[in-house]
Amino acid sequence: MIVELPDTNTTAISKELIKVRDSGGAFTSGRVLTLLVSTYEGEPAEAAIEAANEASREHPCRVIVVSRADRNGPSRLDAQIRVGGDAGASEVVVLHLFGDLVDHGKSVVIPFMLPDTPVVTWWPGHGPVNPAADPIGQLGKRRITDSTKATDVAATLAQRLATYSPGDSDIAWSRITVWRALLTSALDQPPHSPITDVEVSGPADLAAVELLAGWLHSALGVPVTRSVGSFQVTVNRESGPLVLCVGMGNQAIISIPGKPDGKVALPDRELRSCLAEELRRLDPDETYHLALQGISGLTRAEDKIHA
User: Fold this and answer.
1) String of DSSP letters for 198-226
2) Which whole number is the average pLDDT over 88-116?
3) How far apart, in whole angstroms, are the C-alpha atoms of residue 103 and residue 140?
4) pTM of the predicted model, to two decimals?
């Protein structure tokens, strides 16, 4: 069910939420957090709502979407309340801000935040320069950006490091969880010979690959070369290289000298899966911070294409 509230105010929206709740359309007692979704005109607000709805099946929450539109016109607040089949296991409040209200999103959302629940702020489009200092970001215990949307990935990740505050995270980081788990598991297997260096190859300007390379540099403490090409991670050891790449049928292939290749089916890492993973933890992600720090120490190879 979707309730439209054009040209409204926060009091009218709050009354409508109570009315919907009293009629049995939504219950807040089981909500475990408030998810603030901050978007600007032209950014994928509907795709973000859909991902939040799916993630809410694992993490029941109230989703508050702040959608900033035209700041040049008169001030106006249009709202939607979505419950039931249109909201997954959550209830969604969509706030379209116009005119001067565009700069006052924090004041508009505060009346709708659930009391005594943690708050997570998510920017599904282009995030702010400093998430922790952003007015809506200040409300969140966790702040999730998405550097895959950046036009200049290197500059964006450098800025994320410069402004890092405990609680910051990135959808691009969640996209490589499976890869990190595979590499960790493979390196736990014998032979446990010393690692000399690592090469990470992948498409240029792909934030997930940059973060993977940075994580390996920080975690292993060895030289890591970032090259451009098809995706492949080569961990050079005295006993021979361990190679992780993608084969036919979206399978991860792990090659270790003297052993048959291991093949693992890769699950889809859709936006909703990455968001659900981010919502599982509300404590600071120190490993993400280490990955950001490791990027500055990477060696950049000349562009080359792996066969």
Assistant:
1) EEEEE-TT-HHHHHHHHHHHHHH-S-EEE
2) 90
3) 18
4) 0.91
